[in-house]
């Protein structure tokens, strides 16, 4: 830290992304990326000709991408906001709608770690709400119309989803607050709340290309909501970084929509692999949460959470381990291909056997 940083940021604890080590080749099951490449139309669209246009700024309105998304989701262009990853949209949400006074925010105590970072970055008054013992969200905890609400659905790192009816209850109970539903993982088996945005002016649904659309490296996220909320986000965007999506990503985003079926099929495969792996893990003595996402959240009495994480890493498999007390016995395992899952299961069984035989 230099002596020049603003005082208010001196104590700020930044978000820690999942590790991306380069010391060897790992089976990466730690950051919930897709194991599948982008679709053919995306690969074709990023041509030398398009790369040669990088001397030109991208279209700041992003209207062609917005129209493609609007078509897919059955909304209008004015209901779509696009940005450089959905983290960027979360950032804008906290900037636009939350403060330390009349606009506090609440979110689950176990959830995506970035919510707290943004709240602290902007000095927002926030409250974390504990989950039930089974890690489910009690929707009544979010009634009250006393704070904006941020919920990942499915939640991370548990994978547990709320129904659309649950989201509607929460939204209806907060008519004077903004309710943000982060649907980063919705395509793997949960119910999207996008349709509710037509009925409620206070609901913002945030989505990403990073997980179900195999484009984590392109950085593309979008939000769907009432035109008023979208206009507010546009104002923030034009006040920070009008060219927030680069030319190649914009193109890739449009092309991916054309190959929607490819992504839908990939999500189906991931969901099948999730169910398969969960069943096998349970046979090995693990407890798993009922995940609807592209990851599994698992713990076992047979081995400490951190120990398993470290031993898997030593054998070339990366999973995500969190140190917070309530979840430190768990690991979050991204669902990959069937081959990757079989390897994970084999290595895990080996680790458990070795541990128990050495006693
Ligand atoms: C991965 C993730 C995001 C961020 O996605 P990007 O679009 O890559 O910025 C947002 N929310 C949750 C819950 C996530 O897991």
Give a description of the structure.
- There is one protein chain.
- The chain is an alpha/beta fold and 359 residues long.
- The protein folds into two domains: 12-37 and 261-354, Aspartate Aminotransferase, domain 1; 40-259, Type I PLP-dependent aspartate aminotransferase-like (Major domain) (Aspartate Aminotransferase, domain 2), CATH 3.40.640.
- It has eleven helices and twelve strands.
- The strands form three sheets. It has a seven-stranded mixed β-sheet with strand order 2-8-7-6-5-3-4, with helices on both faces. A three-stranded antiparallel β-sheet has the order 9-10-12. A two-stranded parallel sheet has the order 1-11.
- Helix 4 (86-97) packs across helix 7 (227-240) and helix 9 (260-283) runs parallel beside helix 11.
- It is globular and about 60 Å long.
- The chain starts with 26 loop residues before the first strand and ends with a helix.
Keywords:
seven-stranded mixed sheet; Aspartate Aminotransferase, domain 1; 359 residues; 36% helix; binds pyridoxal-5'-phosphate; three-stranded antiparallel sheet; Aspartate Aminotransferase, domain 2; 11 helices; alpha/beta
Describe what is shown at a glance.
Helices cover 36% and strands 14% of the residues.
CATH architecture designation of the largest domain? 3-Layer(aba) Sandwich
CATH topology of the largest domain: Aspartate Aminotransferase, domain 2
The percent range for strand residues is 5-15%
CATH H level of the largest domain: which superfamily?
Type I PLP-dependent aspartate aminotransferase-like (Major domain)
The helix/strand class is alpha/beta
Query: What's the Cα radius of gyration?
Result: 21 Å
Question: What are the distinct ligands in this entry?
Answer: pyridoxal-5'-phosphate
Can you tell me the CATH class of the largest domain? Alpha Beta
Distance between the termini: 47 Å
Shape: globular
Question: Major sheet, described briefly?
Answer: 7 strands, mixed
Please bin the fraction of helical residues.
25-40%
Strand order of the main beta sheet, please? 2-8-7-6-5-3-4
Mean pLDDT: 97
